[in-house]
Design brief:
The chain is of the alpha/beta class and 404 residues long. The chain contains 14 helices and 13 strands. Helix 1 runs parallel beside helix 2.
Amino acid sequence: MSHAVFEQTSLAGIKLKNRIIRSATHEGMAGEKGFPTEKLKSLYVRLAKGDAGAIITGNAIIQADGKSSLFAVTMIDDDNSIPAYREITDAVHQYETPIIMQIAHCGRQTRSKSTGLQTVAPSALRDAYYSEDVPKELSENEIDEIIGNFVAAILRTKQAGFDGVQLHLAHGYLLSEFLSSYSNRRKDRWGGSTENKYRIIDEIFKRARETAGDYPILVKLNAYDGRKSGMKIEEAVRIAQMLEKSGCAAIEVSCGVVEDGLYTMRGEKLPADAAMKYNFKYKNLPEFVKAIAKPVIKKFMKQPKPVLKYNLDAAIHIKKGVNIPVIVVGGINNINDINDMIVNSNMDFVSMCRPFIIEPDIVGKFQKGTQAKSKCIMCNYCMIIAEEQPLKCYYGKMPKTIEI
């Protein structure tokens, strides 16, 4: 086993214990105003104690109409949240672990029933999954406001003591909606060419530099998705090069949008029973309808292949096109693959989501040699039930009781 995985390293001046990062994961542990709770702080402390090289938080939302429809979503739209976030960064830093906040706007991938507001998007295109209404196409002034709110969120993140911030440009949320020709049908300066589609990202970087200086700004980028006119790797490489020019600190390479089904969270089996009980589209259906609906779910929630290392090829392409660090995520669950990706595929870092849910101390186990593979079975119950419950591992079993 190479020492490269577990050597101390740095990313844009941020010191990391090793090259294994906890990727952003929705935790469902925010309070009424979207402020973090003690439960969320405890989770991050467990990850820090478990020797994660760095922690990227679940996404914090920059304004009210961009709030996710998931359970207990964290928000970063209010200066009054800064002291609560500062408690988290102080606690995590006691274990010499850096923590980076991911910030986002969910765009059309949310529900008016959750936000109380009209959904918005680059173009007025109905989402096949969040299909309750057609989103409002953002005006020039509204785009400017969103850019300002991203910049304000970046400054709050810095003031709260986070080591850096990650812009969510993946998974079909607002910024990735702008980048994709599938969801961005605009004819003005915010759509059409790659340069125009990228403009909103570049403006965020420019304005953030004016207020936050050289504070590290990372991104999570879609390299590809399942939409016919969506993101393709060739354009993703061009966008990665634009990100480098904008001053991006590192690129985490991911894939997929919600309309693609379980594209970003792959597994061998479909978590249909969990979806029937916890998913907003199915949970209120009569039982006889659910029996009929199961085949429909199976059609929608595609199980793409491969299940492991499914973003590695794309990350290799992007790595060849840029000089900034590249982080690969997706279907990574064992130390041999991690070692191979860093030593032989020239990845700078790897990140994992689900292995950290079942074992917050997985990196420590890898380093000590007591375990070579995660115990995660990729059942995806954690992600489905997160619509209504705080994050936890269910290990392929339906919960008998509901947490309050």
